[in-house]
Amino acid sequence: MSHQPQDFSLFKTGEVIPQGLIDSKTFRSCFVYTDTQGTSSSWLTTCFVENLIFGTCYINKDASSFKTSKFSIKNPRSRVIIVSFLHGISFYNKTWVKYLGVDPSFQGNENLGFFDLSTAEAPVDKLFKPVIAALKSSTLPCTVILDHPELYFLTNRCSINEFMTQISYLNSLTNILISTSADANLIDLHETDPSTITHRQTEFLTKLYHRSQMILSLRPLETGRADDVTGTITVSKGSISFEDEVKNLETNEHQYLYLVNKEGSVKVFFR
Amino acid sequence: MSFRRRQEVIGGTPSGLSPGVNSSRNPVAGGPSRGPPVSPPSRAPLRNTPHVNPTGPAPGLHNRAANNDMLAQHPGIRPSTITSQPTLSTGSADLDRLLTHEGLPLGNSLLIEENGTTDFSSVLLKVYAAQGIVHNRNAGKLNTHVIVIGSDQQWGRQLPGVYRGSSKEQKKNKVATNESKVTVGNINDSNLKIAWRYGLKKDSPSEEFSDHSQTYPNYQHAFDITSSLLPAPAANEMSFVSLNVPDYSKVMLHIQRIISQHQGKLIRIVLQSFLNPAMYPPQLIQHNQSLNFIKSLRHLLHNSPNISLVSSINLDLYPRHNALVTMIEMLFDAIIELKPFPPELVQMMERIYKNQPAKIKQGFLNVLKLPVLSESGLMVIKEMEYCFKNGKKKFEIEEWSIPIDEEEEERSTTKDIEF
Amino acid sequence: MAQSQPSLVLLNRLLSLKEPSHFLLCIDSLFQSSFHFTRELVRCLPKETPIIYLSFETINAPSFATDFLRCDQRSIQDIASNVSKLHKDASSKKLVLIDSLNFIKNEELASFIRSIADPQTIVFATYHQNIPRTSPAQNELKDIPPALSLLQFIASSIFEISPINVVENGISKEGTIEEEVMESYVSKLYLPTNICNRDTYKLILTNRRKSGRALIYKFQIDSQSHTFSVFTEEKDTDEQQPQTEADLLRSLTTFSLTTSSRQQRAKEQVDLPFLEAQSFGAGGAIVYEYEKDDDYDEDDPYEDPF
């Protein structure tokens, strides 16, 4: 059992988000990553943003390798739109300054858009209107990241099916990545009362898993806290596979151990 | 000897002028701090109220420059030891240390969860509020405003005063003060000034500061929970927000209005006993309402450089396996859980430490989230690793160690020897 | 060869729509979805069969679908009338594929299936059993049976799909997982790696016959090579394996002195909190952290753990 730092990849080719997926004109993918109270996934969001824009990954190589990439925020591999229901952009800016080289006062631009919906109360069919407008006007490939959307449907009158319809529509326009919480207290497969938080979040998670190609789970160690391990990250296949244009993509199913330290750098180890 | 005495005497005087003091002896000192409610400066913002749009974005945005100035000069703010962002004291030195920033960074919220029938969390909320008021009194001008959600003026009158040493030390101080009255009268003004300076330089015995106290002398104070803060917080130091409303939007408007009336001040929000059915009407407890409220508060905090929030919730009413609590926890930046010891453990500790009462603790303190660190992905959950004890002069937090029954051990060793 | 098995013949006939079955129900889970099996069905269909794909959750229209209908915002009446208009005068049977029945209300399920299925239109629909069921909002509808029971009752054939827990070579028990463990994973929505959603999986077929009998068959489907085989549970592995220590101990005492294979695996998976101490490359270093109550005497040369 060695604990040498390893490269973090989602696909057998060693890629995080493959070029084929970004280039595909017809195939739209949906990846889900779930976190819990002790294992917040915000660092993974930054990792995805970096990879989508620059093609690099700060976990694997030295943190400034994005500077040597042939891509830049002005000329990204894929445009990124973050729709956050939990954080404002100032939260992400702190890490973006370091890992994406943006200005501390960065407020988003057309290649790295940010929508703060943390207090959104719009009806569900209007919720993503500005996002959809941005997607439709874009001539470059785009990827949308939804950050903890459950905070919307748990506090607004909106059924999971209505919400899934909106996600489907977004997904039909672009690749999407969705982060959401999967604390044990929020999951009960036998709950039947649709007015409870547990039922709604469980229904959302299960329905989401059934339409995803990739599921990543960030969890604390079951054996308790450790000083040199934050938790495990499990890369699993989703319920559906890659087809047609991207049928050659093979998920690198794996469980890693990872460590986030106070400076915000992340290391990944094989289990 | 005489020099030393003089130092003690006059050094005691400034802290005598300071807030926690029962100022019956010195009514003049209480005067100025009570003054502002009727003085023009506090009326001016009131007159301005109609111009402030309470539904607009975070009120902190209106006056960001003024707030930044305030943050740089405020005695109750220091940079976080790990992220350098402006941080305020929770009024408990041990809790400040536990939060790893030496306090609660501005724009962040702390949730104190408590199990059982005890009410230790309210002690922490009160020192948090009292610390803000003390900053007002010490600076001699209003630099902090406390907003209390759900409680009334009665709550404000229960705030503890600053700890002024043990009863022995206090008596000594009193004697010295009386003596000094004569002395001070005899020395001229310039001498007094120098003596004052000495007094300020010297750590007063009541405030047990660690190293950083030199750089941030008025950052945190120790509170004596058996005393009370006198005079009680005035209306221009503390506002109360009623929960007697059909939905939280009124509450939010009220909070925003108060904040806009107190531009350029540090705002400490106290949300006591969140969702307690005795204070919250049933419709406000429903998860879509209550989560929305916490979301709005969170949004307000994250967009204002001068606000912090401390809240408490009872876990007997809302256990941690309740999904609502999980979601509330998701929206707070820092969370600690107070878990009083079961009676058997208390009895055992009392028996084992009967000669060392300082070692007897009252419960476990679990850390569930820490400001900034948790959100950036660090795993900081520490359960059963700390314990707490609420004493007269401070809320003590220590690493937990299993009490060892030495008597039993002794018995077993003697047995061994017999063999 | 294996085709001579009567059960395999039945499976092939069902998948090529030769049996008089109108409603084929596929029950899947998060751990093995119907994705691969649906594609096996499509492979077995007679050529020229029109495939109408009703999508409630699918984003990418599959290439095999003759018609792809987004249904997530339509009423069931609207869907049914749309389906009936398509391929009206096709000479062969047509297949209606429904990606998920979980989006249809309980009270509408039976009438929805009835309005689409007829002797010329076969319905193949998936129901995800892990999605929590929803009790109806109105009280007067509380007596309607749960969706899964209802569907199982009206289906003429039921395909139940689950992960195949044994690795292909079947020699070691590695790569397998016990049902009990799997259930604990299900409840946490945790997907163990290299177990779930593989292209080889287990299929349990329940077929209702005209005679009223219901027969149950088990198959192993390999979607990579497109082969079906009868699933046999491994029972006789004990005989082939040499006697282990555990076997020797078994007859000696009534106490349980051994660890079961499951316990053994659980034991191996435990990560001790401090990994530094486990990396043997460093050469058995002692990782010592000073704790509050440690009695550490600087002057004592024997105290130093290093």
What does this structure look like?
Chain B: Residues 34-43 have a biased composition (Pro residues). Chain B: InterPro entries: Elongator_complex_protein_4, P-loop_NTPase. The complex is a heterotrimer of chains A (271), B (419) and C (306). With 271 residues, chain A is α/β, with parallel strands linked by helices. Chain A has one domain (29-270): 3-Layer(aba) Sandwich (Rossmann fold). Helices cover 27% and strands 20% of the residues of chain A. In chain A, strands 3-2-4-5-1-6-7-8-9 form a 9-stranded mixed β-sheet, sandwiched between helices. The longest helix of chain A has 14 residues, at 160-173. Chain A is globular, with a radius of gyration of 18 Å. In chain A, 54% of the residues are buried. Chain B has a single domain (35-164, 206-340, 362-399), classed as P-loop containing nucleotide triphosphate hydrolases (Rossmann fold, 3-Layer(aba) Sandwich), CATH 3.40.50.300. Chain B is 41% helix and 17% strand. In chain B, the strands form 3 sheets. In chain B, strands 8-5-9-10-4-11-12-13-14 form a 9-stranded mixed β-sheet, sandwiched between helices. In chain B, strands 1-2-3 form a 3-stranded antiparallel β-sheet, covered by helices on one side. Chain B has a two-stranded antiparallel sheet with strand order 6-7. The longest helix of chain B has 20 residues, at 120-139. Chain C has one domain: Rossmann fold. Chain C has 9 helices and 9 strands. In chain C, strands 3-2-4-5-1-6-7-8-9 form a 9-stranded mixed β-sheet, with helices on both faces. Classes of the chains: A alpha/beta (271), B alpha/beta (419), C alpha/beta (306). Chains A and C meet through helix 7, helix 8, strand 6, strand 7 and strand 8 of A and helix 6 of C.
